[in-house]
Amino acid sequence: MVDPIQGESEGGQDEPTTRTNWLWRRADWEALRAELSQTNWEDRLTGTLNEQVEAFTSHLLSLQSNRHPRWKTDLTAKLSGQNVGKKEWWSSLKQQQGLATDSTIPPLTTPSGEVVTRGRDKAELFSAHFSTKMSVTHPNNTPPRIPVLTTAELDSLHITMEEVMALLSKTDTKKALGPDNISPHILRQCAAELATPLTQLYRECLTSQTWPALWKQARVVPVHKKGSRADPKNYRPISLSPWWGRRWKSSSREKSPPSSTPTTSLTQSSLGSGRVSRQPTCFS
User: Fold this and answer.
1) Taking the model in full, what pTM does it have?
2) Which of 222, 278, 212 is nearest to 52 (CA)?
3) Which residue of 77, 189, 202, 273 has the lowest C-beta tally within 10 Å?
């Protein structure tokens, strides 16, 4: 990863952070495809489902790191010229330190009236607030019965390599990275090479009726709703989950039998979203 530029944190400034920015337009895609084609997935994807997913993710991250130019090299060339202005130089320095002032979250006010300005403090404040929205008042109570609104059944769900390849090739490269840090550029550029191992993992999910722990993780982004931006209560959480789960949901929904009346999931209903959910398979 790119080495952070160290500096002292004063006042309400954040501590220096480490960032890796990739130059995808200069990636060696042919070399990456060749390495993926030569990967023995049968030997690599062994053990439990969680172990297979961890091995798959680790291998992709390793190739991503080795085959893509990083921002630091480009930054050196950018700032080595004689015509670099002060504004550009200091802006680049602060961005690398994690001290850039482009945060969309203004200073926040805690329940006790204290004002927080550091990124970590804001994150902890949002975490405490959002967690209260996801807790159940009486967790031991029997959940309410949801009425059956359709007799349609999905007896089986078969995932083909051709379907997975099509999903990979349609990946939107403008989407943000998920918590696994695997770039959507790799998924789209290497769709043919990744279709085989990903199909194997999806089928293992069906066989074991479990969902990998790594794919359950998400980055939570606070989005302002209305009212004062200084009040954490005026934000709602948006989860940036790994690509694998988002595409699975889209693919499985397309295979769900048509329902005369859409069913709304209990979780979504309790959050007031009112969105339709037709999940054909249950995972733990």
Assistant:
1) 0.70
2) 212
3) 77
Structure token pair of residue 262 = 């859409």
Taking only the tens place, the pLDDT of each residue in 233-278 is 999 999 888 888 887 776 666 666 655 444 433 333 333 333 333 3
- DSSP for 90-101 reads HHHHHHHHT--S
- Give CA–CA dist 75/177, Å, rounded: 22
For 204, residues 6+ apart whose C-beta sits below 8 A from its C-beta are 49, 52
Contact predicate 60/198, CB 8 Å: no
**Comparing C-alpha atoms, which of 189, 210, 186, 198 is closest to residue 282?**
210
Which residue, among 100, 91, 109, 96, has the nearest Cα to 13 in the 3D structure? 100
pLDDT at 153: 75
User: Residue 28 half-sphere exposure, CB side, CA atoms within 13 Å?
Assistant: 13
Q: Half-sphere exposure (CA, 13 Å, Cβ side) for 12?
A: 12
φ/ψ (deg, to 5) at 116: -110, 140
Helix, strand or coil for residue 10? coil
